[in-house]
Design goal:
With 255 residues, this protein is mostly helical. The protein has one domain. It is 67% helix and 0% strand. The chain contains seven helices and no strands. The longest helix has 46 residues, at 86-131. The protein is elongated, with a radius of gyration of 26 Å. It comes from Streptomyces kebangsaanensis.
Length: 255
């Protein structure tokens, strides 16, 4: 009979290990889930709450941007109608300032939330590999890299999220992907629209062009808010799924 550990040398008579493996120190115990890679489950709850809070902050900043957009749209409408005077000029300057402040705040909030979100995302990806290593088609590092590689970042993060989602299901059946798909669809729409509208706004010269750009900015900001709210729900739901699955413990070994 071959050695049960190295599967190369013959086991010593009456035993299950060869002489070399029997003399070697035992390997440390692996993770608590059968077939798991060299990693351990780590609670996603703290990072999940932090990521959800940061995404809620992004939604709040986007809401401020909506208000700034409404102010800009209102005053640009007055300019289109031919209104002139110091009051209109003052309101136009105020609208420009609000729009600029909102834009800076959105960038800062987005960067800060991305840092926390990616820490959480990598954590749940590692946990999902412990739960079910067979569910994943890409290495763990793609949980970070997939967001920054051009072109593939349009679908790789969603694919990784769905694999984490399925591996983290606390039941025997994968949970519905509807929430993830809705979040990702809105996120892509908002990102693409933001790039297009930003160029439109920067090139606006006439009052009519400015009003059209303001209307488009409002659409982008509303889409951003919706995407951020759905992202919060995804984070909370996936965090809860992993927490519940970890509390259930490893699945019974097959007979």
């Amino acid at each position: 009979m071959l050695c049960a550990r190295c599967q190369h040398h013959a086991a010593v008579p009456g035993g299950t290990l060869c002489a070399g493996c029997a003399a070697a120190p035992a390997a440390p115990a692996g993770p608590p889930f059968a077939g798991a890679p060299a990693t351990w489950l780590r609670s996603p709850v703290g990072l999940g709450r932090a990521a959800a809070a940061m995404l809620a902050l992004v939604a709040a900043v986007d809401l401020f941007a909506v208000w700034a957009g409404l102010v800009l749209y209102d005053v640009s409408g007055d300019l289109v109608d031919g209104e002139v005077g110091e009051d209109v000029i003052r309101r136009a300057d105020h609208a420009d300032l609000l729009t600029a402040v909102a834009g800076v705040a959105q960038v800062v909030a987005l960067i800060a939330s991305c840092v926390v979100f990616l820490c959480w995302f990598h954590r749940v990806r590692a946990n999902a590999e412990v739960f079910d290593p067979s569910r994943h088609s890409m290495k763990r590092g793609w949980a970070i890299g997939a967001w920054f590689v051009p072109v593939v970042n349009l679908w790789f993060p969603r694919r990784i999220t769905l694999e984490i989602w399925d591996a983290s299901s606390p039941t025997d059946r994968p949970s519905s992907h509807g929430l993830v798909n809705a979040w990702w669809t809105l996120w892509i729409i908002a990102q693409v629209a933001d790039r297009v509208v930003s160029r439109t706004y920067s090139r606006a010269e006439t009052a009519e062009e400015l009003r059209n750009a303001a209307a488009q900015l409002l659409f982008v900001d509303v889409a951003m808010i919706a995407a951020a709210v759905l992202a919060v729900l995804v984070v909370l739901r996936l965090t809860r799924m992993q927490h519940e699955k970890a509390l259930r413990g490893p699945a019974p070994a097959a007979a």
